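Hi U.,

Before I forget, here's the chain from the pilot set. I'm dumping it here mostly so it's searchable later in email.
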Amino acid sequence: MKLYVKPVGTLGTNCYIVADDSGKCAVIDPGAQAEKLLDFLETHGFTPEYILLTHGHYDHIGAVKAIAEKYGCKIAIGRNDAEQLTDREKSLATSRGLSEKDYLMATDLLLAEGDHLTVGNLAFSVLDTPGHTRGGVCYLCGDLLFSGDTLFCGDVGRCDLYGGNFIMMQESLKKLAALKGDFRVLPGHGPESTLDQERMQNPYMREHSDDGLS
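Structure:
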């Protein structure tokens, strides 16, 4: 497995490229700077089979159409966030003055808890983790946890935007805390962490320690 992180856009969204040895790859949250990402994929000889979105906010989807159009790869998102790909107000793109060209798109796969996707010899599984948005998801691949804007290093995603719900966020954090074993936590913004570190140090996850989840 080859893993690369390419921060993009004004908010420094972490776009992840996960490839197998043959060059087949998944692109996770290509939020902006399409040319930068396309150049990277071409330089490394990678062929995207899926674009995996953790949620539908503008800063995670801005380069989706350009990559999908060049490679013909499938766009996948949590089923309750698909509306954000067809409504610029719900994706917050309108509030940022962003055009329809890059922020309205069709979805190929609507994902739900327990779904599995295969990219070459890599296997991804889906966890429903609403809270930051109605349809936020995380992806597990081996010992990697792509947590989007659900879980950050020492923090969690805000819940005061469209579709946000702090009670749902708490339930999602309980789910992540209850995962067996440790994982590298690869968030939508900021530095990576580990799940054990977040169980011990993240105040939002430590709240669940009385439940035996940390």
